[in-house]
Amino acid sequence: MAQQPGARGLVFNEPLIFEHGRKGRAGCDVPKSEFPEIDPATVAPPSMLRGPLEGLAEVSEPEAVRHFTRLSQWNYGVDSNFYPLGSCTMKYNPKVNEAAARMEGFAGLHPLQDASTTQGALRVMYDLEKMLCEVAGMDAASLQPAAGAQGEFAGLLLIRAYHKEKGNPRKKVIIPDSGHGTNPASAALCDYAAVTLPSGPDGLIDLALLEKEMDGDTAALMLTNPNTLGMFEKNIKKVCEIVHAKGGLVYGDGANLNAVMGKARFGDMGIDVCHMNLHKTFSTPHGGGGPGSGPVLAKKILEPYLPAPRVTLRDGVYGLDFNRPKSIGALNAFWGNFGVYLRAYAYVLTMGGSGLKEASETAVLNANYILAKLRGAYHVPYEGTCMHECVLSDKFQQEHHVSTLDIAKGLIDRGFHPPTIYFPLIVKGAMMIEPTETESMETMDTFIAAMKEIADVAKTDPESLAAAPVTAKVKRLDETQAARQPDLRYRR
Amino acid sequence: MEYPDGLHYTKDHEWALEEEGVVTIGITDYAQSELGDVVFVELPEEGTVIKAGEPFGVVESVKSVSDLYTPVSGEVLEINGDLESEPELVNSSCYDAGWMIKIAVSNKKELGELLSADQYADYIKSLK
Ligand SMILES: Cc1ncc(COP(=O)(O)O)c(C=O)c1O
Fold first, then answer.
1. How far is the CA of A88 from the centre of ligand 1 (A)?
2. Which among A425, A428, A480 has CB closest to B62?
């Protein structure tokens, strides 16, 4: 068996920065000012005087550097090892994207500069919208939403504006029970009642049930395809027809786009509006690694309502159009998370159309490889081939009183970030594994070996898994106590 | 698993106990064991009028968040304030100290549509 990556390293303890250093210590000498010092009390009103500052860290440069280096060594990211967190598409983020985002001409821009001096930046936004529309089969886009959840919010606001203009905003949004938690939350924020649609026995939308639920009060159906069980909604065209027949619209949660790029397009399936997660599919750092971006993309009928401003191209000149009377308004400070656009833009250009397609093919192949290798050792709740992620459960291990949580903790000891656990909610003890296309067969094989070893240990030595992790810096946490009595604040 | 006689049960795993027009509601032993350690319970305000089958609150455990559905319609007379500081009562005493709300039932007939202890036990077996 290949050696597993987990080991006991030289791991440092590290207090908070405030517990380092001593009063008066500084990292650098500031030269004496050439201007005379003035006592602020002589020039500013008392309400603006802040008094002496207490509690700031006073440390030397090496103390500061070691502090943050040590903290970074506790971290786990795609740059350290495999990160199979299902529904999160933790693919490797190519460093060339970082080079693009750091180019001085972009990094030094101010959003309020005159458009005549920001043509390049506006062109990136304009072209990126076009590229994303092509991938999704949509007509128009706004890059503004700062994450997937805000993209959903924007999309539902578009739907609301559309129905409202027709005279009735309608009352509810139907969401399959396999949906992500952000879906009902977005519906509620847009003042819609979220109605749950139970999945059929095959894990897909039950057409008869949908037909029954769908009525003139329903503003939209919100779904993701492939769904959160990692299965393709093969009746999607029929699903859209049922919703459209009653005047409703279909929202596509694009979180799982990594399975179908260049293969199938939301627009062609009949979906009216969707979002994409640039921070997942288009390989920009996420999960504490950087801000997100969840562009909203729509068919022509919804274009008038898109967030303002829109990027325009007229006679070869790029500009920003604020005059959008039907727009749902602005969703973000300035023009959104521009640094993410640059990374996504670089990603699309370096991959090319055929590269994106190959990425999806490999992502699906990798997930099926893991599913095929772990079938038997773990229970597979919904049989068949999967898309870009597979779902297993702890049913076999439960016989030995080993749970999904124990398996996840056991993976930490073996050097792997655990998969997504207890999601989707409709699978008891779910483990959702999304390898992405960027992992080699060797990496997946060491992960598979670790999973199989854990399945063996669950039979022979279940207690050891109940104690895991033992090699991690922090041992098994008391999650119940942490949730019941959270201790969130630093006290000196 | 324990499902006391004399209580009415729902397929959403709530129980209901009727005493002189007042119905006490909580979640079953099966529900608390499936949820795992309960860390938070959100309950409606007293005086709220709720309809059978509609959500009246939320129960959150370390694993998941679930809606609570009322088995009968009526006005909320009282809520179990202890659950705010001691949500673990739902795990340790789901039929007693872990009760959730008391409702002035508006239509006693609704109780007749709920499951008996035996029927509920059979239903749980069918889920396995
Ligand atoms: C299916 C699905 N929809 C929506 C979201 C929300 O995206 P974000 O976390 O960027 O807000 C996620 C995030 O994990 C997701 O997996």
1. 7
2. A480
Residue A27 lies in a domain: yes
The answer to whether A485 faces chain B, any CB pair under 8 Å, is: no
**A148 within ligand 1 shell (Cβ under 6 A):** yes
Domain that holds residue A448: 355-479
Q: Measure A312 CA to ligand 1 centroid, in angstroms.
A: 29
Structure confidence at residue A289 as a pLDDT band (50, 70, 90): low
The residues, any chain, with a CB within 8 Å of residue A113's CB and separated by 6 or more, are none
Same domain? For A222 and A290 the reply is yes
Position A7 pLDDT exceeds 80: no
- pLDDT for position A350: 97
Q: Is the CB of A294 under 6 A from ligand 1?
A: yes
Tell me which DSSP letter residue A247 carries.
T
Beta bridge partners of A275: A253, A296
The reply to whether CATH 1.10.1740.10 applies to domain B8-107+115-121 is no
Q: Can you say whether the dihedral through the CA atoms of A451, A452, A455, A461 is positive or negative?
A: negative
Same domain? For A224 and A326 the reply is: yes
Question: Nearest to residue B46, comparing CAs of B96, B106, B102?
Answer: B102
Strand order of the sheet with strand A390-393?
A: A390-393, A430-433, A420-421
In a domain, A266, yes or no: yes
Q: Which of A181, A422, A484 sits opposite B63 (nearest CB)?
A: A422
What's the pLDDT tens digit per position in A217-237?
999 999 999 998 888 999 999
Q: Is residue A87 part of a domain?
A: no
Query: Is the pLDDT at A8 greater than 80, yes or no?
Result: no
Q: A428: which chain B residues are within 8 Å (Cβ-Cβ)?
A: 34
**Contact between B40 and A480 using a beta-carbon 8 Å cutoff:** no
A488–chain B Cβ distance below 8 A for any pair: no
Predicted TM-score (pTM) of this structure: 0.88
Asked whether residue A306 falls in the same domain as residue A224, the answer is yes
Summarize pLDDT for A179-196 with one digit per residue, the tens: 888 999 999 999 999 999
CA atoms of A248 and B1, how far apart (whole Å): 45
Position A103 scores a pLDDT of: 96
CA of A432 to the centre of ligand 1 (A): 14
Report which ligand 1 atom has the smallest distance to the Cα of A151: 11
pLDDT, residue A483, reads: 87
Number of cross-chain residue pairs from A and B with Cβ atoms under 8 Å apart = 18
